[in-house]
Specification:
Mean pLDDT: 83
CATH architecture of the largest domain: 4-Layer Sandwich
Structural class: alpha/beta
Helix content: 10-25%
Low-confidence stretches: 98-105, 112-126, 437-442
Shape: globular
Distance between the termini: 44 Å
């Protein structure tokens, strides 16, 4: 495996997350430099390649088959080459054998090859040469290779048409996918009709992940992608289509509503795989809200957030309900990894809140975490955390849980103390968590929330034909 990974790569920073001790975890998505060099060195071939994509044709260069590698590096507080480099391409060398050379930094490597867009569950120690920025001409060529200008624009009209006919939401279910995120809106039969992200953990966090859930795609539910990070996209790879089972359908054949962002080579592979599979990908570019009526006084509101990096420039979903039967109007808020301060729209009343960034820092350590307040009084409300047990990011962080507690979201306290209990629990009071860390292993589960109280256990979701036996905490 090490020899297979060795070579020269072009790479972009996928994410950079600060830890409590000041170190940062940086993920790079890299793609074989040897495979791309002919396109980079030949303006004519590059023009033909882009022309084919823009015309909806398959280009001669099958970039979906180009070898890639995901690289995770832990940087000390004094290392800064990743700062302000989100739009920069690097060139680096990989020594898959993990030879300790003077010019290398330790890294975790995961191969990405062919159409298998998620790496196998292996991670090996390797050497990665210090990334070097490439020249402007090469950067422009790489941006042209992985441009998404040929993907369909998700205008308000196109998105509304793609989501037309969706039923009212009765509850939201957040699945246990470890240190990642996957949620679904369910109708009154317990059938998922819309997914928010399809995530799966990366690197060492896979060791503590549950068995991948077999998600129900019976009704070909669309997918709203909050942002282009693997822990929000890569769960789709476990959902295989079965001609004998109508519940098992390929998510790539669904409609995907995604944000316009600077993406990496492997994000590009996913988008192209959706197009090749016959799915539809709609790229939301507008900053204005997109509203889709669901009926029964409910509506979806999709809006781009106001930040600049991948976490803070993605899509935010609000599910809004008008007052009914004496209950006040309220909303469910799905912000992905976006800092609350970068939301363009914050509902006046949020009764179900998904904790931003899995309960982590919302940019750098010390930046404010300012969640929407819990509705006043002792009425029903839920704060949902999605994170993995023993997370390498240490999610959820005390700064996050304290900030949410300070806005009225009631966490369970340690016995005889004002400190919030360790969150490797089912939850308590307003809080539910997907994490189910147990001494005897990790158990797959899910959490669910409704509009005015604990939802009924969804019959279809727990049926043998759908997901089968699954623990759902409410």
């Amino acid at each position: 495996m090490g020899q297979e990974l060795s070579g020269q790569y072009y790479a972009r920073i996928k994410s950079s997350d600060e830890l409590p001790d000041g170190t940062r975890i940086v993920q790079l998505d890299a793609v074989s430099a040897d495979a791309l060099q002919p396109l980079i060195d030949s303006p004519g071939r590059l023009s033909d390649y882009r022309g084919a994509l823009n015309a909806g044709k398959a280009p001669a260069e099958r970039l979906r088959d180009v070898a890639g590698v995901a690289i995770r590096v832990t940087l000390g507080p004094g290392d800064s080459w990743d700062r302000d480099a989100a739009d920069t391409w690097f060139r680096l060398g990989v020594s898959g054998e993990g030879i300790a050379a003077a010019a290398t930094i330790p890294a975790l490597l995961e191969p990405r090859g062919g159409n298998a867009l998620i790496a196998p569950m292996v991670a090996l120690r390797g050497g990665v040469t210090e990334p070097e920025r490439v020249d402007p001409q090469t950067v422009q060529a790489l941006k042209a290779i992985y441009s998404i200008d040929h993907w369909e624009t998700g205008t308000p009209e196109a998105v509304a048409e793609a989501l037309a006919g969706l039923p009212p939401a009765e509850q939201v279910v957040m699945f246990d996918v470890g240190q990642a995120g996957t949620s679904a809106l369910l109708d009154d039969t317990g059938t998922p009709f819309l997914y928010v992200d399809l995530g799966w953990p990366l690197f060492e966090d896979r060791a503590n992940a549950p068995d991948p859930p077999k998600l129900c795609f019976w009704r070909r539910p669309p997918v709203i992608l909050t942002h282009w990070h693997d822990d929000h996209t890569q769960g789709y790879t476990f959902q295989e289509e079965s001609p004998k089972d109508p519940h098992r359908k390929d998510p790539l054949k669904s409609v995907w509503i995604v944000p316009e962002q600077e993406i990496t080579a492997n994000d590009f592979k996913l988008g192209e795989a959706i197009r090749v599979a016959g799915g539809r990908i709609l790229v939301v570019k507008t900053d204005q809200p997109i509203t889709v009526e669901l009926g029964s006084g409910q509506r979806l509101i999709i809006r781009r957030s106001a930040g600049h990096d991948v976490n803070d420039s993605g899509l935010v979903l609000i599910v809004e309900r008008d007052p009914v039967d004496g209950a006040p109007g309220t909303s469910w808020l799905f912000s992905g990894d976006c800092a609350y301060g970068n939301l363009r729209t914050i509902p006046e009343r949020v009764s179900v809140l998904t904790a931003a960034h899995h309960g982590g820092y919302l940019n750098d350590k010390g930046d404010p975490i300012d969640p929407p307040p819990r509705p006043a009084g002792k009425g029903y409300a839920r704060l949902l955390y999605s994170f993995g047990p023993h997370s390498s990011y240490f999610h959820p962080l005390k700064e996050s849980t304290d900030a949410h507690q300070g806005k009225g979201w009631r966490h369970r306290k340690k016995k005889g103390s004002d400190e919030i209990d360790e969150i490797d629990w089912p939850g308590g009071l307003d809080v539910l968590s997907t994490s189910t860390a147990k001494a005897d292993g990790v158990k797959r589960s899910a959490i669910a929330a409704g509009w005015t109280g604990k939802p009924d256990l969804p019959g279809h979701l727990r049926s043998k034909e759908c997901m089968g036996k699954i623990e759902i905490r409410r």
